[in-house]
Structure formats: C-alpha cells, structure tokens
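We modelled the chain as a single entity of 279 amino acids. Its sequence is:
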Amino acid sequence: MLSKNQIGVLYGIASVACFAMMDACVKWLDQFPVGEVLFARFFFGLIPILMLVPKNELTNFYKTSRPKLHAFRAVSGTLAIIALFIALREIPLADVVSLTFGGPIFVTLGSIFFLSEKVGMRRWSAVIIGFIGMLMIIKPAYEELNIFYIFPIIFCIFFACVALSIRSLSKTEPNYRIALYFSLLSMIVGLVTFPFGWVMPNKFELFLLIFTGIIGSVANILLTVSLRIAEASLVTPTKYLNLVFAILLGYFIWGEVPKIFTLIGAGLIIFSSIIIFIR
C-alpha cells in the first residue's frame, strides 16, 4: 500500500512526463503558426479544466471578485507561453527546458522587489549561481548570434509574475477558475492570428494539436493534485526529470545532443532552485 507522499510523487512524475510530451508536440508542430498552436493548446485544454467544475457551481463558476489580478495572471501566463512556444521551435529541447528551470530565480527576485520579502545571503547566492548557469546555457547565443535564446528568459520573467499572482489568487479562488481565465485569454490571442494565415492540418497533425491541448491541461491538473497529496519538498524535485525526458526526446526525434555547457548550466540552475526552495 503506497503512502500519500509516494502517490503524490507518482502524480508529480506523471505531470512531468505530460509536460515533456506537450513540449515535444509543440516542437514537432513547428510548420504551424504559433498563434494556431496556441489556440489549439488552450481550446482543447479547456476540456479537462471544465470537467473540474463542481456541479453546484455550473451556473456561476466564472464569477470572481478579483478580476484585475486574474487579468494580470492571464496576460503574464499568455506572454510566458508564447515565449516558450517560440523557444521550443528554434533552439534544442534540452536547452529550453534547462533555462525554464530558472523560473524560481525570477520568483525570488520578484518577491524581493514587489512583495518586500526579506532574502538572506544564502538565497542571494542561489540567485547568482542560477544566473551563472543560465549564462552558460545561452553561451551558444553569443557564438551563433541566436537571438531565440532570449525567449526562455522571457518565459522565466513572466512565469515569476504568474507564480506571484497565483500565490495571492489561490487564497480565495479555486484552481479551475485561475486556469480558466488564463486559458480563455490565450485562446483568444491565438484566434486573433487566424487572418494571418493558419495551416490546414492533416489527420495526424490535427491529432497532435488536440493532444497538445489536452495533455497540457492534464499536466497542470496532475501537478496540482500531487502538491495537495504529498509534501511539496518531495514533489518539487520531480520536475527536474523533465530534463531527462527532454534529452531523450530531443535525441531520438531530432538528433539533438546536449552540449556540455547545457548540462553544467542546468546542474547549476537545479542546485540554485533547490537552495531557494529549502531556504
């Protein structure tokens, strides 16, 4: 009989696997405009979210007393996901995933400047170590003049905005409502790009677009469940398995071999994030 912590960790691992599959699908669908993939991700992603709405709230599940903070979270999340989708198309999968591990670094900085939280020397040291790791990963950007390495950094910045807003929203709002407004805005932004030339998918590509939306939302749901069941200190480290999945998928599908600087930089970022988490 598994304990709650063990079950929670398994949910966390399943969540990471789902996120890895979503990332791979987005990269595979690089012949489609970003707006079209964005629309598919959140249109079909609404299915799992709406299934979470309690029956007694079907008539008012969308009502909120905090529209401004929902708007901030939705805009930040939409900009973050757009940056991520662009990065997945243009740079190696392992590099993208490694750089996105830097999210907690920017959350720490945001909590200092916007929430006036006090940060000791250990967390400041972790931030510096994390930035060194990120600089090592984006080293090819300087050598190859690859501007797309800036997009995972943009993702991390807006991820920090999302994390800080959810920290406040989660005190009064259910998870499905927080995800709902973010999904609706992202879907609308994607739909607006329709006149600029969407591509008609074949049956397999349509399957991937639908799968991307559903698996992305399932990943978020699994992560939420895992954090409710198990201690956060046990679940959080499972996200670093995403790098393993990214390396395997990148190698076997696109023939991408991670550079030594990517692996060292990822190690520094992971080390930095763990210090920040256990502070």
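As a brief sanity check on the tokenised model: The chain has a mean pLDDT of 90. The chain is about 75% helix and 0% strand.
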